[in-house]
């Protein structure tokens, strides 16, 4: 409906309302924002629309526009259902590609709300200034649902306060200007399921100019060394930037706090006056001088109280902090162990509990909670990003959080964490690497380390010192939605790829952690998350993720624990337990959640393996333990967890932990051990000396040099499964018909954990798609996504198919997913391969079933999830690099074969573990005599410890066997072939050639 028509209909409605509801004669006519008659669609940026959001996949509410006879305005209302565990709600944003709206003529915003009488608080937020609705300053108020039936809720703009948490880059100007408005948002109550209905959002009344002047300060915390002077900038500003119409006075004085007036600082008091006519944006400075003495002291605070007349006061009272000084733990020349012991001896139980608490940055009730509760850590969950999502915004956001720690006695810095699982994947513009499954396909530990080093450099350059990676899971069933986070199905392969720990952290002794290009690594998910049985999950609709791993003690040690022993040897700084349960045959305990297994965390990991880092829980994972909340806290901490990720429950967790310690149910010794481990890594990271972001490396984020590493990883990860008649590599002179849903989609190419938790299709981040890369390689390419364009006159077809993004249990097979190509992909393959010689590329996080179609496909490539650098795919397609990748997991003939893994008693896959053809210029020739010679040489290399030579000899033997086997795979060939690749990963080169010889004889 055109806006002019909306205004007419609204005016008619106002005329029909009682006098008390109509606008005053001298006020402007109400301006509709939403009538919910379909005039504003369900859509998101950059278009205008209404969209939902939430902390987790099940937190966004469902919305609908039902027709209601009792609708206060028009015939429809906006209604919805919600069941929110974290946070959730909906937003109406104006179009980002059109000008913002001017609300400054009006008194406020109002809406009709259907009350339920449940006393719940509904938060209402408006968006002011900035580039668009998702990069605007946020101002919030609320109302209480303590009535029943329809009621008009009026929210004067004077009731809105600057939201001090989760602001875009710390805010814009802290002034509710109202001249550039981008819409509104509603946050619904969490904790209990509910329904809502609303109607007729509109601007009402006449603005009161006297209430549109603001006083702000430059920062909420001003940290100075003892003897220094704090300078607090006080600024006056008006909505619309008009000069002051009336004078504004700001009376100030130092009062309260932990510092002693006269001894620690010189008290100040006075008044700053901004006369009428003062330009908006005028600033004055209040200075507070601190005093220096000879004593060592913790930090002390000096609040600067402000009393404002004629304008709105700042959202917070600025705090001046005299930094801690002279204490032994602050001496960087002392050994870390001494510094930890000194600091720990000074801390209260409350301060120790705070260090064990990690909150989600978007869940902070107020940023001051960081200091008030002494929080040890914050994290960004998948998709929890600043606005705009740039390196500078990340650094500024995290520095603002670190600033809050300065108000605590000992100024212990935060350790901020993110899931950078394939590059700094939350950051738009970062270098996105292949997922771990692709890195495993490279069989190149040195390249894996280089890729991890790029990730570390990009993460640390945005102020983040901690990465929740790598995943050391051993994927044993590709129906698992996290299988692409694994390096492969063989624990020996996973262990060989753990060079990524050094790429992230540097040397094993931790001496490199303080470098500006290194981060603390996290080995996850301890232990057995990749071995859960299909159908064993009890989490929502998940079918396998977070389920039960049923193993013998021997299987547990050999498959799921072995990678963690290697990680400990490599000095990994933190470990994250799995959501899953462990059921060890014969122990009589049945399935027990890993977060409760003291025998595994405290006994095996910390005890037998000697892990000296700290253990961090997974996202709200302790909530899955049986019993009440106190039991969850007690059980997990006593099991050996040192820091608990409680995204939304940080206050409750800290209080409960303190209560449990005071009651004697958690020992002070256990708390001291946990806090010591956390502090140790903070000292090693150099956070006490340099808590703020070192952004010198930010210019390299997404740089050509970093993308070159990713491009090489992509090329080496491509696995050539079939190549009949030497179709690949392509020649630039060939006329190529390209089709398929994944040929030109950077989001599908990157997969889950890309910008958002689940990832999404489309242009989510800068990069090069496969199609763009093929064109860039000089290919003569025609593209038809659905293969509907005519197919005559082409030399070869390339069909790029596969999966759309998903993450974790959302991607479990049976939870809306399977391993079959989509109908559109199957149709594209059939059409192209029937018309010409064809190559099919499967861009996916796990094998996709091709079945009988294999016979019609000339070349088949497992392209995994390559990330942003599609040029790496083109490099092997056009022969700039040879195909060298090998399968990190077994490729099944059918889903009925799952789970299927190397070493199974029955093993008859379509392609075995380790399979991977090559396009090297010269493929080794020879038969059994050649294999015998290679075996002898491989045994000699093994005895000499010449690993590279041994691997090269086995590769030659493997290529000979693959050439003989051709396109026909039998169990007799697959079994010894797969076993040979396992033997290579364990350094048994002679035995590997012997098994390859057996495969050769069976081919």
UniProtKB/TrEMBL annotation:
Broad enzyme group: hydrolase
Q: Which residues form the Calx-beta domain?
A: 202-307
The beginning of the lineage is: Bacteria, Bacillati, Actinomycetota, Actinomycetes, Kitasatosporales
Q: What is its EC number?
A: 3.2.1.21
* Transcription found in the keyword field: no
Family in the record: Belongs to the glycosyl hydrolase 3 family.
Q: Give the record's keywords alphabetically.
A: Calcium, Glycosidase, Hydrolase, Repeat, Signal
Provide the leader sequence positions.
1-24
Query: Know the name of this protein?
Result: beta-glucosidase
User: Does the record's keyword annotation contain Signal?
Assistant: yes
Q: Which residues cross the membrane?
A: none
Enzymatic reactions? Hydrolysis of terminal, non-reducing beta-D-glucosyl residues with release of beta-D-glucose
What SUPFAM superfamilies does the annotation carry?
(Trans)glycosidases, Beta-D-glucan exohydrolase, C-terminal domain, CalX-like, Galactose-binding domain-like
């Amino acid at each position: 409906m055109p806006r002019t028509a909306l205004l007419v209909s609204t005016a008619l409605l106002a005329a029909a309302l009682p006098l008390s509801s109509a606008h005053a004669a001298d006020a402007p006519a109400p301006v509709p924002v939403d009538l919910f008659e379909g005039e504003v669609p369900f859509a998101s940026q950059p278009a205008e629309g209404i969209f939902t959001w939430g902390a987790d996949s099940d937190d966004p509410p469902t919305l609908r526009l039902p027709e209601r006879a009792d609708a206060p305005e028009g015939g429809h209302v906006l209604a919805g259902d919600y069941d929110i565990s974290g946070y959730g709600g909906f937003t109406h944003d104006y179009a980002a590609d059109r000008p913002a709206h001017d609300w400054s003529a009006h008194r406020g915003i109002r809406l009709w709300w259907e009350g339920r009488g449940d006393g719940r608080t509904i938060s209402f937020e408006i968006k002011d200034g900035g580039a668009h609705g998702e990069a605007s300053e946020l101002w919030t108020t609320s109302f209480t649902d303590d009535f029943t039936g329809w009621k008009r809720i009026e929210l004067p703009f004077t009731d809105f306060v600057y939201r001090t948490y989760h602001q875009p880059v710390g805010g814009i100007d802290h002034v509710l200007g109202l001249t550039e408005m981008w819409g509104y948002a509603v946050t619904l109550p969490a904790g209990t399921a509910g329904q809502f209905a609303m109607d007729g959002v509109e601007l009402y009344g006449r603005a009161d100019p006297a209430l549109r002047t603001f006083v702000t300060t430059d920062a909420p915390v001003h940290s100075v060394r003892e003897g220094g002077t704090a300078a607090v900038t006080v600024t006056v500003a008006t909505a619309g930037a008009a000069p002051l119409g009336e004078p504004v006075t700001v009376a100030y004085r130092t009062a309260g706090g932990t510092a002693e007036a006269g001894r620690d600082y010189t008290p100040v008091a006075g008044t700053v006056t901004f006369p009428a006519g003062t330009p908006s944006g005028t600033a004055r400075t209040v200075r507070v001088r601190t005093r220096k003495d000879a004593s060592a002291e913790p930090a002390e605070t000096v609040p600067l109280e402000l009393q404002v007349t004629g304008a709105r006061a700042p959202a917070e009272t600025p705090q001046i902090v005299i930094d801690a000084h002279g204490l032994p733990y602050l001496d960087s020349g002392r050994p870390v162990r001494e510094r930890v012991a000194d600091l720990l001896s000074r801390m209260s139980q409350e301060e120790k509990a705070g260090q064990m608490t990690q909150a989600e940055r978007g869940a902070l009730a107020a940023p001051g909670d960081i200091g008030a509760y002494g929080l040890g850590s914050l994290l960004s969950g998948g998709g929890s990003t600043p606005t705009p999502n740039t390196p500078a915004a990340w650094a500024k956001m995290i520095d603002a959080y670190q600033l809050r720690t300065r108000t605590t006695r000992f100024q212990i810095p935060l350790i901020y964490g993110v899931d950078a699982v394939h590059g700094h994947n939350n950051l738009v513009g970062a270098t996105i690497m292949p997922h771990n499954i692709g890195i495993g396909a490279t069989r190149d530990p040195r390249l894996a380390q280089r890729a991890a080093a790029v990730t570390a450099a990009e993460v640390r350059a945005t102020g983040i010192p901690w990465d929740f990676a790598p995943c050391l899971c051993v994927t044993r069933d590709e129906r698992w939605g996290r299988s692409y986070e694994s390096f492969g199905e063989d624990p020996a392969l996973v262990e060989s790829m753990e060079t990524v720990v050094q790429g992230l952290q540097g040397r094993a002794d931790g001496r490199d952690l303080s470098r500006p290009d290194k981060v603390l690594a996290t080995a996850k998910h301890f232990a057995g998350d990749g071995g859960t049985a299909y159908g064993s999950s009890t989490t929502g609709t998940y079918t396998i993720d977070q389920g039960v791993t049923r193993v013998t003690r021997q299987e547990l040690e050999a498959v799921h624990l072995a990678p963690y022993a290697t990680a400990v040897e490599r000095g990994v700084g933190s470990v994250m337990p799995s959501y899953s349960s462990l059921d060890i045959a014969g122990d009589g305990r049945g399935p027990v959640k890993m977060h409760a297994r003291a025998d595994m965390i405290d006994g095996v990991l910390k005890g037998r393996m000697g892990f000296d880092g700290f253990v961090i829980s997974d996202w709200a994972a302790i909530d899955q333990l049986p019993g009440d909340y106190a039991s969850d806290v007690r059980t997990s901490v006593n099991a050996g967890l040192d820091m608990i990720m409680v995204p939304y429950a940080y206050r409750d967790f800290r209080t409960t932990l303190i209560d449990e310690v005071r009651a004697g149910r958690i020992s002070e010794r256990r708390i001291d051990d946990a806090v010591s481990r956390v502090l140790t890594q903070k000292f090693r990271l150099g956070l006490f000396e340099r808590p703020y972001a070192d952004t010198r490396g930010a210019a390299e984020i997404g740089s050509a040099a970093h993308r070159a590493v990713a491009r090489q990883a992509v090329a080496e990860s491509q696995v050539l499964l079939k190549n009949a008649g030497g179709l690949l590599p392509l020649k630039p002179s060939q006329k190529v018909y390209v089709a398929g849903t994944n040929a030109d989609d950077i989001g599908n190419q990157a997969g889950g954990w890309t910008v958002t938790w689940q990832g999404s299709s489309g242009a989510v981040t800068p990069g090069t798609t496969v199609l763009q890369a093929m064109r860039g390689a000089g290919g003569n390419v025609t593209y038809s996504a659905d293969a509907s364009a005519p197919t005559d006159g082409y030399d070869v077809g390339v069909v790029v198919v596969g999966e759309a993004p998903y993450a974790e249990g959302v991607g479990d097979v049976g939870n809306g997913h399977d391993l079959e190509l989509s109908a559109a992909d199957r149709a594209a393959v059939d059409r192209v391969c029937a018309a010409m010689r064809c190559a099919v590329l499967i861009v996916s996080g796990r094998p996709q079933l091709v079945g009988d179609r294999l016979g019609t496909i000339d070349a088949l490539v497992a392209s995994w999830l390559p990330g942003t650098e599609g040029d790496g795919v083109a490099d092997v397609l056009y022969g700039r690099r040879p195909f060298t990748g090998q399968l990190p997991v077994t490729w099944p003939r059918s889903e009925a074969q799952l789970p299927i893994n190397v070493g199974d008693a029955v093993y008859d896959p379509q392609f075995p573990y380790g399979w991977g053809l090559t396009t090297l210029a010269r493929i080794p020739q020879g038969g059994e005599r050649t294999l015998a010679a290679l075996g002898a040489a491989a045994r000699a290399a093994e005895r000499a410890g010449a690993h590279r030579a041994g691997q090269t000899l086995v590769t030659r033997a493997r290529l000979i066997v693959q050439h003989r086997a051709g396109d026909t795979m039998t169990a007799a060939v697959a079994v010894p072939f797969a076993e040979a690749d396992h033997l290579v990963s364990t350094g048994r080169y002679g035995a590997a050639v012997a098994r390859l010889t057996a495969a050769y004889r069976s081919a």
